[in-house]
Amino acid sequence: MAVDHAVFWYGCNMTRHGEVIRATTRILELVGMDAAPAGGPASCCGSPKEASARISEGMARRTVTQFNESGRGQVVTWCPSCHMNMQDSMAPVTPTKFETVHVTEALWARRDRLAPLLTQRVEARVLLHAHHGFNGRVAVNDLVPALLRLIPGVTVAEHPYRSPGHMCSSLAAVPGALADAHRATLSAMSETGTGTLCTIFHSCHREAVALERHGIRVRNWIHLLAESLGIEAEDEYKAWRNAADPRAAIGEDRILAAGEVAFARLLEPELRKPPAV
Amino acid sequence: MTLIEHIRAESARLAGLCTACGGCVRACPMTPYAAGVGAADPAAVAFGMRDLLRDGPGTPAALAWVAACTRSGICTPACPEQIDAAFMLRLAQWRAKGALGEAPRIPVKEDTQFSPKVKAFARLTLTEQEQAEWL
């Protein structure tokens, strides 16, 4: 099998979901892509500092330069914000030596290799957690269901509801918007009789996992693919977020490794945050 | 080219194509979350947004609308001039946040602990080798 060499640009906030980075990299490898993961602050699109074009440009230029110097001909994106920023503000300012493709496009293009590997049955009737925003660039609202339908046992319900925004992090910044979107999503699940909400993006997943308190399951599309492929991908973030005591769920040894002060100040408030609805 | 030059050039290009008809405002799902926009004339809101792209002050309703943009992108197919209206809003939001060095005209919600938080989560979910190779 011919192997394509790429960078898997997973973005920043995906570090909450290490198992998704790991599983996606493995799935890409299985379909013939040697995709080296890159992300975090050192590979930033610049959006966290978008109130200053000068700072944002510096961060973005460093990332494009790093990808150019990798010698890999493709950058496979995960994050819709990173993907759009690459097209809108990064590549126009710093010329690129690579093609940018979204991970859903990369996997769909290799579906002939992927489908025979999806051997484990996954019993799930799912509603896709879809947004309007990114679908105009990459047809994720069609590609993800098409990939899910390759999994034996998975059925994807049709419903017209689409959340505003490009992913839930943008809604979370507008008072009331995320709660409205979650209420509409739960209504759509009730109307379709679905028990599993399938998220596409990381920021949606981290907000949606708390909806499990409403008696549904929340899984990312990579979790479903990984299960069918027999790849271990335990959703620890979901367990922590829904635990009565996240600190106990994580364990003191791991908290010490992460840094007690950093955990207490930066992570614990998010993990204890009440759900939007 | 710098990002500032890119933002200025694209702002001028798209402002030149925009007729401020208000089609983008009518299509936007976020107007209920933008103070004063629901009661305003959509064309007037679009006019204020276009003014931001032309180095103008905009209007209170336009600034509220730009601030509420979550990149839904529904405005783009709604534009009769076939402008990438979503990108036009993105440019307006950059400018309203003060990206070109001016004082911000809309709230800037910048998390100063963003990078430390990303790294702290990485220490929880990635092995030391993965952190060394992937971050």
From TrEMBL, chain A:
Residues 7-86 form the Cysteine-rich domain. One of its GO terms (molecular function) is oxidoreductase activity. This is Cysteine-rich domain-containing protein.
UniProtKB/TrEMBL annotation, chain B:
Residues 9-38 form the 4Fe-4S ferredoxin-type domain. Gene3D superfamilies: Alpha-helical ferredoxin. It comes from the Bacteria. Keywords: Iron, Iron-sulfur, Metal-binding. InterPro entries: 4Fe4S_Fe-S-bd, 4Fe4S_Fe_S_CS, Helical_ferredxn. The keyword Oxidoreductase does not apply. The keyword Transcription does not apply. GO terms for molecular function: iron-sulfur cluster binding; metal ion binding. This is (Fe-S)-binding protein. It comes from Dankookia rubra.
